[in-house]
């Protein structure tokens, strides 16, 4: 196998450091979600060309964490890019738009691909239904999404990047998932179970 | 006068006893190459040339008897006559005894003389005798046939050094560079002069006029990514206008050519000389009764200007009316603003509104209480010239706006032929009309049809593969992979003959030949991309095949290459041989990187990093150490960590010709669009449009310099790899599992 990109989960200060990928079809509002999360106070200009435009320090459950958001919005059509980009990430926000059924159906494809890339049967993921402010145009009911997320065994949340609703919450949910999986893989190693821990961790 | 033989060994003796009078034109010089690290993406990657792209050359003080072979220098007495009085003032200042001579002025020894620089210096010395001799360490890279063409100057400008400090400079504009000379302030012991050559063809410069404020009056800004050169014209706003006009022309923002402009000005001149003393006489210059024209209201400073580090960067927010005013202000000759406006106006107004405003501004009546009609007429023609320039640039560069809009076509036709033509601007009207006729004859350059045909073929091949798959459920999957499988759908059979499914056959040519071929083919596709495809995320919505066919095609090219590369690897049955194929592709990717083709390099890396290839443990173990080192390097290059910093930097520093990894530019366009408001408090976010336009301008820059490698002697073709697009990721993954089953 080709040498792996090493994924560190803590930086030199011992602070947790996660790479979170925002995944979803074109037009689901991924980029808006990322921008809203990175800029929690209203800053007039967003410049995506600089190094820090996708990084953020956050405190989740009273524990500080350094997050790098991997968002390739605009590059969705580079299909062959996905594998390597998924391999780099520690956790995934799988975003669909509640007003576009196609984007909801695409989630399964992403889900399968993530598991294949990670080469294991579980990875930290959160299902995110964006654009929930557009109630009148909604085609994906929250119940339907909940049933589906239960099937996948992952949490789900509805957001509105436009109204800044549940933006931070969705990322916090994912950080918790990543932490959970870290912990369980540690336990795996401690108890020397034969089960192979996820390759990312 | 003594003769100099170059390179000189020493000129120490001649430097002694120098004399600072301006008439003594001979100047020994010393050269220091300036800092070279902070340049933009056109910077040559080799330091030796980079340092020369913008050299600061310190000239020693004037030397009474110093050496020269150039007879132009002897013309010094006539040079003085050529200069304006104000220029002389500066000259006196620069040549004042404030510059002491020291025996240190000996650095000119053993320096090479670039013939082009020599020619330039002699040209300048005709105008400005104190800059007599200069030498540059090494060679500048000029095009063979570059003819030094003097454009404008000498002008007295002030160069802004930050912290409200200015330095007086003498500026000359040549067709490809700006030459700025000044007194050496930084090192008084040198007592010399310094000059700086800014070569426009090596950096991404843009030019902007700056609004007058407390720190700048009559100022303009030459802007490179991340830094600015701000100049203030010392005389008047007209000088600023000339500089902007000429700089804009040089920086290739296409409006009228110099020759056309001259013809138009000559045409107007006779009317300007005619005396106009009354409103009745002025009426002759209007196509409508003056009394019925709406008054023009100057909105003044109703826009929000952004400042960064104390430097005015431009307008950030403005109302639509203010945007129109800025656009048509004859003194705000900002080419960047014009390009940005014409590219993006559809996001905040309509073509018809723009035309309506241009018309009404063209017919601006004299202000209430105006008595000096002669003066008003002069002003009016300046405004009208600007309107004509805008209209010309609009038609010339953005004709697609007119193509399907009959009403707009009619109105524009009326404007050119009834209004402009009948307002004593017949020359301008005829030039614009000529451009219009030419554009109308031209077809859109899209090869959308060809692209569509490819897509149809691909669809048919995909269907065929699906059918075969369902028919042969029990057969070994691998057998389905045959590009040349004879199919019943004969219509597409011929096309499938032009791509090889035999790995060894396909990789017969040298890596260099294959890489070069890819460069040429990729560039052909890339060059079709139109600015309008880059807006409103046209490439990612459902109508992308219609609205952004060329961007889509360019992306598809890299997807198909990635699939084809994976296929050629997976097509081989033994790990040892597969390792050889992987090695070959690492080498090709490495050559592509050196040829600055980030597009195909990225596609091959995508393929090697895709699951189907990445998991081939047995094969990767057999890849040679040497290739593995290169692979690691490329893997770092394409890493998306830190916002793809490594790849971004490499792309910026690459010399042209180059092909970008378009994905990064598309992401930036997406985030600039989604991350910034379109307007605020009813004011349009102009800065956002500037940012979008700046990325699109980069694409246009790449398109200007194509690869020109010959590849007709290549044994294999890489043009039809779209045929590989029939296979899905799943197909490849299954093939991968078959070659190296899961353990």
From TrEMBL, chain A:
<dbReference type="GO" id="GO:0005886">
    <property type="term" value="C:plasma membrane"/>
</dbReference>
<keyword id="KW-0449">Lipoprotein</keyword>
<protein>
    <submittedName>
        <fullName>Ras family small GTPase</fullName>
    </submittedName>
</protein>
<dbReference type="InterPro" id="IPR005225">
    <property type="entry name" value="Small_GTP-bd"/>
</dbReference>
<dbReference type="GO" id="GO:0005525">
    <property type="term" value="F:GTP binding"/>
</dbReference>
<dbReference type="InterPro" id="IPR001806">
    <property type="entry name" value="Small_GTPase"/>
</dbReference>
<comment type="similarity">
    <text>Belongs to the small GTPase superfamily. Ras family.</text>
</comment>
<dbReference type="Pfam" id="PF00071">
    <property type="entry name" value="Ras"/>
</dbReference>
<dbReference type="GO" id="GO:0007165">
    <property type="term" value="P:signal transduction"/>
</dbReference>
<keyword id="KW-1003">Cell membrane</keyword>
<dbReference type="InterPro" id="IPR020849">
    <property type="entry name" value="Small_GTPase_Ras-type"/>
</dbReference>
<dbReference type="GO" id="GO:0003924">
    <property type="term" value="F:GTPase activity"/>
</dbReference>
<keyword id="KW-0488">Methylation</keyword>
<keyword id="KW-0636">Prenylation</keyword>
<keyword id="KW-0547">Nucleotide-binding</keyword>
<keyword id="KW-0342">GTP-binding</keyword>
<keyword id="KW-0472">Membrane</keyword>
<dbReference type="InterPro" id="IPR027417">
    <property type="entry name" value="P-loop_NTPase"/>
</dbReference>
Automatic annotation (TrEMBL), chain B:
<feature type="compositionally biased region" description="Polar residues">
    <location>
        <begin position="7"/>
        <end position="26"/>
    </location>
</feature>
<feature type="domain" description="N-terminal Ras-GEF">
    <location>
        <begin position="311"/>
        <end position="440"/>
    </location>
</feature>
<keyword id="KW-0344">Guanine-nucleotide releasing factor</keyword>
<dbReference type="InterPro" id="IPR000651">
    <property type="entry name" value="Ras-like_Gua-exchang_fac_N"/>
</dbReference>
<keyword id="KW-0175">Coiled coil</keyword>
<dbReference type="GO" id="GO:0007265">
    <property type="term" value="P:Ras protein signal transduction"/>
</dbReference>
<protein>
    <submittedName>
        <fullName>RasGEF domain-containing protein</fullName>
    </submittedName>
</protein>
<dbReference type="InterPro" id="IPR001895">
    <property type="entry name" value="RASGEF_cat_dom"/>
</dbReference>
<feature type="compositionally biased region" description="Low complexity">
    <location>
        <begin position="27"/>
        <end position="37"/>
    </location>
</feature>
<feature type="coiled-coil region">
    <location>
        <begin position="448"/>
        <end position="475"/>
    </location>
</feature>
<feature type="domain" description="Ras-GEF">
    <location>
        <begin position="510"/>
        <end position="742"/>
    </location>
</feature>
<dbReference type="InterPro" id="IPR023578">
    <property type="entry name" value="Ras_GEF_dom_sf"/>
</dbReference>
<dbReference type="GO" id="GO:0005085">
    <property type="term" value="F:guanyl-nucleotide exchange factor activity"/>
</dbReference>
<dbReference type="InterPro" id="IPR036964">
    <property type="entry name" value="RASGEF_cat_dom_sf"/>
</dbReference>
<dbReference type="GO" id="GO:0005886">
    <property type="term" value="C:plasma membrane"/>
</dbReference>
<dbReference type="InterPro" id="IPR008937">
    <property type="entry name" value="Ras-like_GEF"/>
</dbReference>
<feature type="region of interest" description="Disordered">
    <location>
        <begin position="1"/>
        <end position="75"/>
    </location>
</feature>
<dbReference type="Pfam" id="PF00618">
    <property type="entry name" value="RasGEF_N"/>
</dbReference>
<dbReference type="Pfam" id="PF00617">
    <property type="entry name" value="RasGEF"/>
</dbReference>
